[in-house]
Amino acid sequence: MGLIDSHAHLTFPELHGQLEAILERSDEAGVNQIITIGVNLSDARTAIDLAERYPQTIRAAVGFHPHEADSVTPADLHAMAELWNDPTIVALGEMGLDYHYDFGDRSKQRSIFARQLAEAAGRPQPLVIHCREALDDVIPLLLEHGFEGRRVVFHCFTGSPQEAAKIAQHGWRISFTGIVTFPKSTELQAIAREYPSDQLMIETDAPYLSPVPVRNRRPNEPAHVHHIARFLADLRGLPYDDLVEETAKNTRDFFGL
Ligand SMILES: [Zn+2]
Fold first, then answer.
1. What are the pLDDT digits (tens) for 95-148?
2. How far, in Å, is the centroid of ligand 1 from the Cα of 209?
3. How many whole angstroms from 5 Cα to the centroid of ligand 1?
4. From ligand 1's centre to the CA of 215, what distance in Å?
5. Tens of pLDDT, residues 218-254
6. How far is the CA of 127 from the centre of ligand 1 (A)?
7. Measuring CA to CA, how many Å separate 144 from each of 5, 87, 115, 118, 177?
8. Whether the Cβ atoms of residue 64 and residue 39 lie closer than 8 Å to each other
9. Ligand 1 center–CA 241 separation, angstroms
10. What domain count does the chain have?
11. With a threshold of 0.90, does the pTM exceed it?
12. pLDDT tens, 156-188?
């Protein structure tokens, strides 16, 4: 079983024109599946195209990122819901709230997130949540829409142990990017060290967040997920191959790959 990069943005401009080389390098690094995330309508369509072109390797998850909230219209929400019917779509999102960058007006962010949750509630796919400094608003919205105990991942988790515990309380999980490899991420490393082995998932969030030891290499790419796997294997004290197998199995089960 090979590595899976459970969250990357292969469609983002930083990676344009490099897809063949990126896939070659990820293959060499032992990565055999990549979930690419589309964050608005046109990006979602490109993500689905990629998944159709590379059915062995690429799957798609699409939704409106909170950064996009200000420009989303009711017609856009309807069009996104149509895309969710596409068989290449393994998850809905990323969607959520970002009070760190605040690119979208907060009440607009909440309404676009809530509208997507209402649409997602009746569907079988899991959710990919983007949450930054907004957990106290994200949790009630998820509960209101019936997601208690359902498949929900808070991708690129960077919160506190208390926040991780709150997420776990509702049966949801978190996933780890290269941020866990940064020397200053001691709190996150403590969370990752104890995180249940049957839930652990890893992601690059490429083109962002290059992990140690390639932290200065931009853009980040799915091949680098092996550095995150190596780091976590050392942190958790188990052989690299075992960690790869665990995370791949968890990711397959979660996304139904
Ligand atoms: Zn993302």
1. 999 999 988 899 999 999 999 999 999 999 999 999 999 999 999 999 999 999
2. 10
3. 12
4. 18
5. 999 999 999 999 999 999 999 999 999 999 999 999 9
6. 13
7. 30, 27, 12, 9, 28
8. yes
9. 26
10. 1
11. yes
12. 999 999 999 999 999 999 999 999 999 999 999
B/e letters for 134-152, b = 16+ CB within 10 Å, e = fewer, are bbebbbebbeebebeebbb
Tokens of 206: 């490429």
| Residue 19 contacts residue 10 (beta carbons within 8 Å) | yes
- Six token digits for residue 134: 């907004």
Residue with tokens 């689905």: 48
Q: Could you tell me the CATH number of the domain that includes residue 128?
A: 3.20.20.140
Please give the residue range of the domain that contains residue 18.
3-255
Structure letter (DSSP) for residue 132: E
* Closest C-alpha among 204, 196, 152 to residue 176: 204
* Cα-to-centroid distance, 132 and ligand 1 (Å): 12
Ligand 1 centroid distance, CA of 7 (Å): 6
CA distance 22 to 25: 5
* Residue pointed to by tokens 């809905």: 92
CB contact at 8 A, 116 and 66: no
